[in-house]
Amino acid sequence: MVVDGRPYLIDCGYGALRNLAASNVGFLQIGTVFFTHLHDDHTGDLAALLSYQWTGGKTTATDAYGPYGTSHMVQAAVEFFRANVEIRTADEGRTVDANKQFHGHDVPASDSPVQIFKDDRLTVTAVENTHYPARSKAKMPYRSIALRLDTQQRSIVFSGDTAYSANIVKLARNADLFVCEIIDSTVLEQVRERAQEEAAKGNSASVARHVADTHSSPADVARMATEAHVKTVVLYHQVGGAAGSLSFPVSGFIDAIHAAGFSGEVVVGQDLMVL
After folding, report:
1. What is the rounded distance in angstroms from the CA atom of residue 225 to the CA atom of residue 222?
2. Which domain holds residue 76?
3. What Å distances lie between residue 143 and 14, 48, 229, 232, CA to CA?
4. One domain for residues 75 and 122
């Protein structure tokens, strides 16, 4: 998200660094990163981003904000490219201390929206979503959040990975853009069947059960968008078509959301799309 020329990055999964370059936003300009949760498809390029910022000559700080574990993840990312820093410091006369340049901040995951960041161009609030079920949260401190980014011009909400969430409805009230994940209903039903098969074998905590219980069907997206009175839905983290068929028409998502009751605009996101 670019606000008056200043870019902010939301999640940093595989390919993020490449697409920052392809978008002409670039990676050296990124000073603030927000994480919805710490699954690797949302964090996989963090170490690469920070390492290339350091090697590329960035001297200002980069701060990452996300749920529990974010601070430790940033420290671990810096440790990952420790050899690169030490080699270039000795061989190239580098003077920037990576330990002092990159900072992680753990933010709350609550049932009510909480402000987690504010500068002269952007205010960010967060709320816990439903990507981690209660049975899993009882065994770990990690959480998953949705984010609302408010500027003077407009408001954009990022659902993160989630099933239907009343908390997100509160967060997204009257937002201009609701960027929401989606999984096709047919695929979701197939995954639920696999989850039942796994449970019958004694594996109650399967990947299939996680996917079935913690992602949004078109009806879930439509319900959240309608209840929150958002203007436009933008779909990302898309899983579409029978068995994820590449021939799945994106109009299928749009038609399914409208059929479920959302009357506003629906945009199917693509890499490098500008909204």
Report:
1. 5
2. 1-107
3. 21, 24, 26, 27
4. no
Distance CA 220, CA 130 (A): 12
Mean pLDDT, rounded, for 80-103: 97
3-state secondary structure of 258: helix
pLDDT category of residue 250 using cuts at 50, 70 and 90: confident
Domain CATH number, residue 19: 3.60.15.10
User: How far apart are the C-alpha atoms of 8 and 29, rounded to whole Å?
Assistant: 9
Contact 158, 147 (CB under 8 A): yes
pTM over 0.90: yes
- Whether 102 and 112 map to the same domain: the answer is no
Q: Same domain, yes or no, for 126 and 43?
A: no
Task: Give the model confidence (pLDDT) of 206-245 as tens digits.
Answer: 999 999 999 999 999 999 999 999 999 999 999 886 544 5
Read off the amino acid at residue 187: V
Q: Where are the alpha helices (DSSP H) in 67-156?
A: 70-80, 82-92, 98-101, 134-137
